[in-house]
Amino acid sequence: MSSTDIVYNVYWDSWIFCKFTLVKKSIYIILTLLLPITLWAQKGEKQLVQFSGFAMASDSMMGIPFVHIGVKGSSRVGTARMDGFFSFAVAEGDTLLFTCVGYKPSTYIVPSGNEDNKLSVIQLMNKDAVVLRTVDIYPWGGKPGFHDYFVHVRIPKTLQDIARANTDRQLLAAIGASLPVDGGEVSERVLQYNAAQYSYYGEQAPQNIFNPLAWAEFIRALKNGDFKQKPAATAPPPQQDY
After folding, report:
1. Is 183 helix (H, G, I), strand (E, B) or coil?
2. Which of 51, 53, 61, 192 falls 20 to 30 Å from 174 in CA-CA distance?
3. pTM greater than 0.90
């Protein structure tokens, strides 16, 4: 082997050693940089928990229907059933916000270290009184309609005037004439007819055809037009307070 070959071999071995050392150092640097990122990623992962329970009123311990349960910092939400029961997946450390109309909002922080990745709670909520400002309701749509309403308004009557109108004799007579005969009136008329028949039991009942007083009454009624056909009486509607 010549000296040239020896020099070449030495150079080649040195180059391979340097290259291997460089690759080894590069791998070490890459692993050194990736290890904290991997540890941080593993540390940042949260354990999911099946979160279940009841939302109840603190004063009556009754379930509150349709309570809205939201996770702060995310779009994940849940809704309780009619009896206040809820169940959905959350992560450990999440802050839950319970809201419902008529109750004060309440929060709950999901703890860590739950067995079997399940958590059951009873969330109590306090009632909240909401006082609305006074609202006046008017029968007209706006200011342009006020003039027409004021001109055509019907002045309300007093309760005494309404009672007097509803107890008018002509009104009551018209209402009575338009009503059908009920069972009580039918039975009363039958009893009166039977009583009249029984009073002449065993003898001939008198005939008014020979009674001059009955003939005078008949002639008077004929002159007054009592036998003319009259239209059916219609009862006007009862007066009401407008």
Report:
1. helix
2. 192
3. no
